[in-house]
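Before the break, one more example. Copy the sequence into your notebook; we will annotate it together after we see the structure.
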Amino acid sequence: MTQNIKRIGILTSGGDAPGMNAALRAVVLSAEAAGVEVIGFRHGFNGIYQQDYIRLEKADVLHIIQLGGTILKSARCKQLQQPDGAAQAADILHQLSIDALIVIGGDGSFRGCQAISAFYRGQIVGIPGTIDNDVDGTDFTIGFTTALDTALDAIDKIRDTADAFERTFLVEVMGRHTGYLALAAGIAGGAEQIICPEYGDKVDLDDLLQDISQLKRDFGAGSYIIVMAETMYPAGAQALAAEITARSGTECRACVLGHLQRGGSPVGSDRILATKLGAFAIEQLLEGNAHMMMAGEQAGQAVLYPLVLTGDKKKRADPYLLQWQQRMLQQSEPQS
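Here is what the structure looks like once it is written out:
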């Protein structure tokens, strides 16, 4: 049943991801075509509390599909975490006559949606935007593919200098609790070693040193690339690189890609995914199907998925590639 929605709010929250602007564009174009007004809140949920917003029209978003970052800006919001924070946000949305709220972000942002929904009379819809690709209910999140390409470009360049100096390089990518980005970048970059949560909660330094030594025995001096998800070594990538250098006899350098992975123009697949999910979110919202749902994509099809389930961590990095990488390492180890 078509809903009588006249005014929707939209915001981008949490870590920025390439393609957020493409999703904003699709939402605004689709809403305007349906005669619905769009209000953009600046700086994430903070924009609601501060009533810092602008009306978004077609002219504002026509040429932003290629832009990284987010024209609405993003931020963490401490006020939402206060005991009465969610109720205050809902009250302000009611005062502003916002019939529905669209939030582009990751699982932390969606938890904010869940908190507000307890007090808000309108509909709330999520669109997954995070380079970590760790949101349940969608095969890919907006920004992941671009971040992968950024990491891969860095790894390819590091391989050149690693070969030239016959060094070991440790490349740290984002992904605090998941190895999606580390696994994808490591596989695509031909890394000799991938360190991520799916292989265990800590680095087995002895095993890592044995692998490096075995490669040198088999093929002589050469490059060795390790791709590691952030937080896997509590003391940090630089400390791990120093430890490898001290114990292996081969110089190891650390390269922490950090926020470099979040920036840049989104690649084509992220622009397409963002456009598809933004348009689908509006379509389903106007049909009354999307309250407390996330617009995602599974097997190429746009789907709705309950927001309350998006943070369950049931989604897993590709098990086949995880096993294949492990088999290749085991085959290179000396047989007893």
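The two ends are 68 Å apart (CA to CA). The mean pLDDT is 94. Try to locate both features in your own notes.
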